[in-house]
Write a structure and sequence with these properties.
The chain is α+β, with helices and mostly antiparallel strands. Helices cover about 25% and strands about 35% of the residues.
Length: about 90
Amino acid sequence: MATLHIRLTPGAAHDRIDGWDVDADGRPVLKCRVRAKPMDGQANTALIALVAEALDLSRADVTLVRGGQSRLKRLSIAGIDESEIRRRLNTT
């Protein structure tokens, strides 16, 4: 099981992954945008769907661990390791 740190922008024009960045702690974060608004967990649900599709996994393999009401989120990814996550995301 791998951990993926995300910086989410809800209410965007398109659902997309913008690439890698570094947060204030020097930790790599994946920048993502979703069309869903940050109400009733809609943006979190859209984020899980986006990441699962990008990694070619089922939504059940992607779990929100931390940051339910924050732009900075931590996802748990089942079935692949962190090097495989980077490989799959760098080809999209």
